[in-house]
Amino acid sequence: MDIQIRDMVLDDYDALLALWRETPGVDIRPVTDSREGIGRLLARNPGLSVVAFNANTMIGCALASHDGRRGFLQHVVVAPVARGQGVARNMIDICVERLREHHLGWVHLDVVVDNESASAFWLKAGWHPVETLTRFSRKL
């Protein structure tokens, strides 16, 4: 596979949405994961999110953002046919290095509770669950 990783742009949205829909365990949110939501993310956090392609086919993505204090990774996804080749690790390394340039204290990510393969991946990659926190959310 000839894998190319580059900055995500809004023109990638249709391929991004198709990749998410084809990947079990991805929780697509109607507002934040809409074209407009991804446009806001990219505008507010330029140069942080990446996509991976094999030829003209998107095979991976990693959304990255920060609030000035903490970094966040969201929807780190690799198509099943491209797994086990280091695509996710390469995208994560790029995003983490770019977040590091903002002098943030931590990088956080969320994993859907029953997504065992994602949890296993993150544990193997050296990440750990935060046992002292529980995420609370409120719809706007």
Automatic annotation (TrEMBL):
Single GO MF descriptor: acyltransferase activity, transferring groups other than amino-acyl groups
Keywords: Acyltransferase, Transferase
Keyword Transferase: yes
CDD domains the record matches: NAT_SF
Glycoprotein listed as a keyword: no
SUPFAM superfamilies linked to this entry: Acyl-CoA N-acyltransferases (Nat) (SSF55729)
Highest taxon of the lineage: Bacteria
Pfam families given in the database record: Acetyltransf_1
Stretches assigned to the N-acetyltransferase domain: 3-140
PANTHER family (alphabetical): AMINOALKYLPHOSPHONATE N-ACETYLTRANSFERASE-RELATED-RELATED
Protein name: Acetyltransferase
Provenance organism: Caballeronia sordidicola (Burkholderia sordidicola)
Origin organism lineage: Bacteria, Pseudomonadati, Pseudomonadota, Betaproteobacteria, Burkholderiales
